[in-house]
Amino acid sequence: MTAAFSKALREILAPMDASFEAFSHDYPFPYSGWHYHPEYEIHLITKSKGSFYVGTFAGEFEPGNLVMTGPLLPHMWVSTDSGDDWDPIRKQIPERDVVVHFSERFAASCLQSFEDCASLKTLLDEAHSGVQLSSKTSRRAGVILEDLMEARGLDRLARFFRLISVLADDPDRRCLSFALPQGPMKMAGRLNAVLAYIADNFSRSDLTCASIAAAHDMSPSALSRAFEKHANCPCVEYINRLRVYKACQLLAETEVPVTTICYDVGYDVLSTFNRNFLRFIGTTPSEFRARRAFGPDGKQRFDQTNSRLGGALMAGDIRAASGRPNLVPGASALYKKID
């Protein structure tokens, strides 16, 4: 390979190579809570068991849980049984998560550049509602993900596309939540703006569907129709799910009193909080915390009280300028933690 050709190849690869990233992180971590961002995400859990939340979906996970989410879809994984993976010194589960982020622009470029991309388009469309992959696919993808984090240049690109191919070929994957609207563009843009507004403000006790509609120059009936059509649930239920799922994180990861959590996530009546929690999670907040904070032997699984992340879990004011989050509050809100 000549020097000139090598330089040209690096210049061609550079923008594509920068369009996605693969990394691992520990748990808990300031952005491992209830959050959303504008990139597609492929997320593999390698350690621990617990509950995960994607949009309006709530379920249980164990090692090997592999999920792909689309842009702006809220999601989080809350570990409640660390087994032997908990590091008592660091007060974390080391490298619990393996994550790949890639942009909508990069995805669109792939669809335009390659022929026979029907399976990729289907996968990307389904990711807008969250997709859980089969255990067989998870095992294959896990090997690729491990190599992807270390690969560089053309080899890195090849492994990325191999990963996408494996996910797209999974006949047993399942959609988890509602799908964010893809068209017409005007309504898609407006509803996406509404969902982002709700994510930023759902902890306000005065947030109502009427106030949301007014803030976006929509009538309450138009907002209601948009939610029924695209989210398959009423606006008020979507708000309640965000509140309850955020409460699940705080119950599992902090020792903040249940009543305080009730108010922090946007409820001003404890009985309403308890009723909605039972409806969505199937148990009371206190029972949820007891079951997840302690093992069968009565020993506490997690000790977040003295964790350096304790304040961040409650404050939730973490931003990042690009796919890989930094920890500087006040940076670009492309990566948004839901307070």
TrEMBL record:
It comes from the Bacteria. Gene3D superfamilies: Homeodomain-like. Keywords: DNA-binding, Transcription, Transcription regulation. One of its GO terms (molecular function) is DNA-binding transcription factor activity. InterPro entries: Homeodomain-like_sf, HTH_AraC, HTH_AraC-typ_CS, RmlC_Cupin_sf. SUPFAM superfamilies: Homeodomain-like (SSF46689), RmlC-like cupins (SSF51182). This is Transcriptional regulator, AraC family. It comes from Consotaella salsifontis.
